[in-house]
Design a protein that fits this description.
With 248 residues, the protein is α/β, with parallel strands linked by helices. It has eleven helices and eight strands. Bound molecules: phosphoenolpyruvate (PEP). The site of phosphoenolpyruvate has 14 residues, from strand 8.
Length: 248
């Protein structure tokens, strides 16, 4: 059984005080659910959020990291730095990073390798643009993104990776892929994993859907056969919404 994973992606939102207040509001409510609950926050908040979540099952993740261990990379943060403060997860290759910050399939692959080598859980994002969807290229595009993200990753490590399928046209737009559509693409991504690693490994990999998930649609999405969680931007900013997501 794949444990569902509901992850908030706060993007560039919240001060330390706001973030800590959020964790304090949700941390006891999350206990006892069968869901992995994760908040991915801006770097400046991470040490305080880890501290606030200590002793609870709420996990804290970053939204990016560099693939090198150290060096002259102004503005970057390494896997060791994240581990040093108790971060457990890291989003890799979010479409906003691909669009605005030059992330490529190659850098996603390097970051996934580094995260796994260091013991961080990578959440590797993939997904098509509206133009690609309308041209019927959704699956071929996701296949390339997944194959290139997993290049050189051993079968023993593949199940440690979480994949987030996030159609770009559905992110922050209020437009959601229908749950069947999302499930269809996610089932296809699992087939791609079968091609890379075989059935047993592919059955272990958790694949989230992301794109305007909110309390009103989370249950329908989570009821689909191949969808193992959600990566949520806007609707993860309020504690009451996040708790509804976790309690889908
Ligand atoms: C995201 O940030 O990954 C995302 C899916 O955002 P939203 O839920 O706001 O569409």
């Amino acid at each position: 059984m794949r444990k569902p994973i509901i992850a908030g992606n706060w993007k560039m939102h919240k001060t330390v005080a706001e973030g800590v207040a959020f964790i304090n509001a949700v941390k006891n409510e999350v206990e006892g659910t069968d869901v992995e609950a994760l908040i991915c926050a801006p770097y400046t908040l991470l040490p305080s959020l880890v501290e606030a979540a200590k002793g609870t099952s709420v996990k804290i993740g970053a939204q990016n990291m560099h693939f090198e261990d150290k060096g002259a990379f102004t503005g970057e943060v390494s896997a060791d730095m994240l581990l040093d403060i108790g971060v457990t997860h890291v989003i890799i290759g979010h479409s906003e990073r691909r669009q605005y910050f030059g992330e490529t399939n190659e850098t996603v692959n390097k970051k996934a390798h580094k995260a796994l080598q260091k013991g961080l859980t990578p959440i590797v994002c993939c997904g098509e643009t509206l133009e690609q969807r309308e041209a019927g290229e959704t699956k071929s595009h996701c296949k390339v993104q997944i194959e290139e993200a997993f290049t050189g990753i051993a079968a023993a490590d593949a199940p440690k990776v979480v994949i987030a399928y996030e159609p770009i046209w559905a992110i922050g737009t209020g437009k959601t892929a229908s749950s069947q559509d999302a499930n269809d693409v996610i089932a296809f991504i699992r087939e791609v994993l079968v091609g890379l690693y075989g059935d047993a490994v592919s059955e272990e990999v958790r694949i989230q859907y992301g794109g305007s998930v909110k309390p009103a649609n989370v249950e329908e999405i989570m009821n689909e056969s191949d969808i193992d969680g959600a990566l949520v931007g806007g609707a993860s900013l309020e504690p009451s919404d996040f708790l509804q997501l976790v309690n889908f």
